[in-house]
Amino acid sequence: MLDILSNNNYSQLFYNSESVSHEKRGKYNLELNHTHYIFFDDGTRNSLDDGEFAATLAREISRGARRRIPLITILVGGTLHALYEILNDLKHGVPIVVVE
């Protein structure tokens, strides 16, 4: 699993909720009720390829957990690229919820 998901070109980053809880223009706030976050970066800007990495990461985390972690994809809006991601999720047995 680690061989698939590792990216040795970037340093490991740690965030705590106190360092990101203040609103800053152009930044995102983290949900304070969550205990863990996973951030990834493929090194490009506006890449459409991050969906495959995210899907692989989610499946590997789910498989490696002591208790099964359910996966679900929620589609709100989307592009033609989103259809590819949905097809990929369906091929891997991930249920899809489409919000109009």
Describe the model:
This protein has a domain at 2-70. Helix content is 35%, strand content 8%. It is built from 4 helices and 2 strands; from the N terminus they run H-H-H-E-H-E. It has helices at 2-5, 17-20, 50-64, 80-91; strands spanning 73-76, 96-99. Strand 1, helix 4 (80-91) and strand 2 form a beta-alpha-beta unit. The radius of gyration is 15 Å and the shape is globular. The chain starts with a helix and ends with a strand. The relative contact order is 0.14.
User: Which structural category fits the helices and strands?
Assistant: mainly alpha
| Helical segment count | 4
Biggest sheet features:
2 strands, parallel
- Count every beta strand, where a strand is a DSSP E run of 2 or more residues: 2
Given as residue ranges, the uncertain stretches (5+ residues, pLDDT < 50) are: 1-21
Average residue pLDDT: 68
Global geometry: globular
Report strand order across the widest sheet: 1-2
Strand content: 5-15%
CA-CA gap between termini: 35 Å
Structure described in brief:
The chain has helices at residues 2-5, 17-20, 50-64, 80-91; strands spanning 73-76, 96-99.
What does the secondary structure layout of this molecule look like, with pairings?
Layout: H1 2-5, H2 17-20, H3 50-64, E1 73-76, H4 80-91, E2 96-99
Parallel strand pairs: 1-2
Question: What keywords describe this structure?
Answer:
100 residues, 2 strands, 35% helix, 8% strand, disordered N terminus
